[in-house]
Amino acid sequence: MHVVIARCTVDYDGRLTAHLPEAVRLLMVKADGCVAVHADGGAYKPLNWMNAPNTLTIEQADGESAEHETAQVWHVRSPKGEQLTITVHEVLAEMDHEMGIDPGLVKDGVEAHLQELLAADPTSIDDGFRLVRREFPTDIGPVDLLCRDTDGVAVAIEVKRRGEIDGVEQLTRYLDFLNRDPMLRPVRGVFVAQEIKPQARVLAEDRGIGCVVVDYDELRGIESDELKLF
Amino acid sequence: MHVVIARCTVDYDGRLTAHLPEAVRLLMVKADGCVAVHADGGAYKPLNWMNAPNTLTIEQADGESAEHETAQVWHVRSPKGEQLTITVHEVLAEMDHEMGIDPGLVKDGVEAHLQELLAADPTSIDDGFRLVRREFPTDIGPVDLLCRDTDGVAVAIEVKRRGEIDGVEQLTRYLDFLNRDPMLRPVRGVFVAQEIKPQARVLAEDRGIGCVVVDYDELRGIESDELKLF
DNA sequence: GTGTACATATCGCAT
DNA sequence: ATGCGATGTGTACAC
What we know:
The first copy, chain A, is of the alpha+beta class. Chain A has helices spanning 63-67, 111-120, 165-178, 198-206, 216-229, and strands at residues 2-13, 17-29, 35-38, 48-50, 55-60, 72-77, 83-96, 106-108, 130-136, 143-148, 154-163, 187-196, 210-213. Chain A has 2 domains: 2-96, Distorted Sandwich (Protein Yojf, Chain: A); 111-229, Trna Endonuclease, Chain: A, domain 1, CATH 3.40.1350.10. The first copy, chain A, is built from 5 helices and 13 strands. In chain A, the strands form 2 sheets. In chain A, strands 4-3-2-1-7-6-5 form a 7-stranded antiparallel β-sheet, with no helix packed on it. In chain A, strands 9-10-11-12-13 form a 5-stranded mixed β-sheet, sandwiched between helices. Chains A and B meet through strand 2, strand 7, strand 8, helix 3 and helix 4 of A and strand 2, strand 7, strand 8 and helix 3 of B.
């Protein structure tokens, strides 16, 4: 990892073109060759960047350039033809350090957990729901949960952390395919999420898809309560 | 901007919980208070982070902690109740620098520009197109452009930098809703992008949606040519 | 403030 | 490679 604080101007030409006028910024070059230009604010996203793989060549200023206060020009090029040019006018601080490979991150609390909890107790979606299968396969991908309701009617369930329009589209596609299967037909749909956006709800209801909002912590509570009973 | 390279362990508890085992990483604290933990690879996204606003308190190790090799514990807390805890075992390098406010980024070539250019001259999509409205509202969100063709028929236009299947789905939804309005019906659709992926084109054509590929530089050229006429 | 769509999104997985 | 889904998405813009 190489870190430089420098007064610089930056130009990117690739998927779009962008220009950064002269200012003091942090330049970060990682071991895999990716480069990021950070301002002193604005969350974690850099102003400009180039992902690996790419090649970095640093052109030292010759005499004439030095007159124009240019110390270095960094050329970062990717195989796809993207290009980032950093003109370094002045280096204010610098740091270099070996870091080794990171052991990586352990996460908890994402959609998979929500799906597990609902699979363990589908009645938390609607009374009498019985699980047929998790990740029920269709030609266009697996449905999160397939259940049957009290009347024995098949119910396809799409689980999301945040319910937005895309999720309704996804469930609609699954329903289209599931309803071609004479063994399953008719299949109705239920959209389950911790939060459902109004426009997603409009679209879902317009298509006869039910909407259920669930609480992750509450589900986890119910789950642990039920475990206590055994 | 404060930058530290340190052997550390990291725990995040907020929208999810996550843990990073001990390793050498770069810690970045920006002037606005946001904090990022970077590994020496993996593009520009940090392993963990906390966006502004938040408060950072650094707890120096007391004697007992020092026995366990802990030098500092950083507590980052956001008003939303998210929390990032960085246990610093050893500081390997450090850097601190004032950078001032960044003058900001000038971008060119994003969808908004494309939409502006097309709104200014819809005939670059098809001869005789007249603009009715940009961001024409529907119950499920705004359509990029609504035009009328030479026959006075309404045309909904979805603009994308890169035309993929999602964009066709989006336009299809708008068309479904627009075609319920007796004042507009019938509404046809045109999908406009700098590049249209083959599968997106197949889907669009299957649904009777037209596809138009436009060249950004050329549009800008036409635009400046027309400006010259005035 | 809320809600929606865009992003040089990134990232991972399956085909 | 391409498509598709998830992300602690983040961010700007409209209502």
